[in-house]
């Protein structure tokens, strides 16, 4: 009788461990489903991004953004990049980017630039991975292209949620 009770307790303990493991595994799986820490955005020969806004999860420590140029025009005529800054800093950055000139149209270092891909032409793509955890979801961020004149159309809201 004593031995039976002991065995039953041991069995229950094993069951508990089993269920705890299942719970742990399912919560890890849920987290990985909830996080989409990479984004792909397309640009084209009509001076457009294919997204008006980009929503990313605040649970992502870092984010990888891949910019694709799905057009055919070369970089010197229809170059695109994906640059992220606070919405407040976008206009001043378009100014210094124009001054920086071809081919990159971006200053080498400017602390207002949070992230930037390379300037690319038709058929090319460029990726950038940056720290998301240091950004503040209560601040307005905007992504845009710094090729001269493009920011008027090529911009979107960057939303951390
Ligand atoms: Zn552009």
Summarize the topology.
Layout lengths: L1 H33 L3 E6 L9 E4 L5 E8 L5 H4 L4 E4 H14 L14 E2 L8 E7 L9 E4 L10 E6 L1
Parallel strand pairs: 1-3, 2-8
Antiparallel strand pairs: 3-6, 4-5, 4-7, 7-8
Bound molecules: zinc ion.
Structure report:
There is one protein chain. The chain has 2 domains: 2-34; 37-160, Immunoglobulin-like (Sandwich), CATH 2.60.40.420. The protein has 3 helices and 8 strands, in the order αβββαβαββββ. The chain has helices spanning 2-34, 75-78, 87-100, and strands at residues 38-43, 53-56, 62-69, 83-86, 115-116, 125-131, 141-144, 155-160. The strands form 2 sheets. It has a 5-stranded mixed beta sheet. Strands 1-3-6 form a 3-stranded mixed beta sheet, with no helix packed on it. It starts with a helix and ends with a strand. The chain binds zinc ion. Zinc ion is lined by residues 79-80, 145, 147, 150, 154.
Considering the chains and any ligands shown, give keywords for the structure.
disordered N terminus; 3-stranded mixed sheet; Immunoglobulin-like; single chain; globular; 161 residues; 5-stranded mixed sheet; 2 domains; alpha/beta; binds zinc ion
Write a brief structural summary:
The protein has three helices and eight strands; from the N terminus they run H-E-E-E-H-E-H-E-E-E-E.
What string gives the helices and strands in order?
HEEEHEHEEEE
**What separation lies between the terminal Cα atoms?**
58 Å
How many helices? The count is 3
Q: Please tell me what the overall shape is.
A: globular
Spatial ordering of strands, largest sheet: 2-8-7-4-5
Quote the CATH topology of the largest domain: Immunoglobulin-like
CATH homologous superfamily annotation of the largest domain: Cupredoxins -  blue copper proteins
**CATH 2nd-level architecture of the largest domain:** Sandwich
Using the coordinates above, name the CATH class of the largest domain: Mainly Beta
What does the main sheet amount to? 5 strands, mixed
Q: What small molecules are bound in this structure?
A: zinc ion
Write down how many β-strands occur, each being a DSSP E stretch of 2 or more residues: 8
Average pLDDT reading: 86
Class from helix and strand fractions: alpha/beta
Helix content: 25-40%
